[in-house]
Amino acid sequence: MQISHSRTVTYSPAYTIVPTYECFNRCTYCNFRTDSGKSPWMSLSAAESLLKQLQNKDVCEILILSGEVHPSSSRRQAWFQRIYDLCELALSMGFLPHTNAGVLSYEEMQKLKTVNVSMGLMLEQLNPVLLNTVHKYAPSKVPEVRLQQLEWAGELRIPFTTGLLLGIGETEDDWWETLEAITRLHQRYHHIQEVILQPHSPGYQQTFDAPGLVLYKLPEVVFKARQILPPDITIQIPPNLVKDDRWLLACMKAGARDLGGIGPKDEVNPDYLHLQVEALQEILQHAGWEVVPRLPIYPQFDDWLSVELLSSVKRWRCSV
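RE: above sequence
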C-alpha cells in the first residue's frame, strides 16, 4: 500500500454504517437526514450481522456516519454510546473504524479516539452568510464551532479528514479562505490527512433549488487547493459525483490523489451510485494512473494510536 510514485491514486475499501439518519440540523441541500422519531437507530445485533457478512469481502474501513442528536437532548448520551459501541464492535471484528458524527464535545472526541483510527468533519464553508441561507436551520454549521472541532482533533492527536462543499451559495474567495483556515490548523498540529473537495450534487430530498457545481470548475479548484494546502495533505475527489471521466482525470492531473471510501452506497449522496473499483481502475489506468487501496489512517499517523489500535492497523498493513 506504499505510494511508490506520483501517478498513484488511492481509495479506501469501505462500508458505511448509519447509527441514525435523524438530525437536528436542516441544511437545505441535505439528502441524508430525517426528523427525530422517523429513523430507528441501528441495533448492535443488526450491525453485528451486517459486519459478519463483510468479513470476507476485503472491506477494511467501517465509516460510522450519523445524523446529529442535539447536544442538550435527553437522548444525546444514548446516541453517543451507540456510536461508541458500534465502533468498538467493528474494531473487535477486525475492521478499522472511522467516525463522522457531526459536531462533538471535546470529551466525546477524546472517548471516540480510543475506538477509531481516524475521524472526520466537513468544514463545508466558513462564510457566515450561509447561516442566513442554506444553514439557516442548522445550528451546528456555525463556522467557529466546526473550526473548534478541527482544533480539538489536533490537540487530541486524531488523524482527521475534513473538506469543502462547493456550490452552496459561497464565493470562490470563500473556497480559498476555507482552505487557508485548514492550512493554518494543520501547520500547528499536523493532523489533517485529507481534504475532500465535494461538488454540490442535487438530490431528490433537498429543498435547496440550485444546480450542481459545474464540473469544469472542479479541476481549477483542485489546482488552487494544491497550491494552498501543505503537500502532506491529500486532496480527495468523490468519483461518483464527477460523472464525466474527462473531468475526473483532469482533477487527478490538477493534484487530487484520493477517491475516498468506495462501497455499495454513498449515504450522503444516495442519488449518485458509486462506481465499482474495477471501473475506476479501467478509467484511471488507461490514462496512466495506478489505483491502489489504502487504510483509513495514513502511515505517518500510526504512532498516534493506542497499542490496541496500532495492532489492528499493523495486521491490515501486512495484508494489503
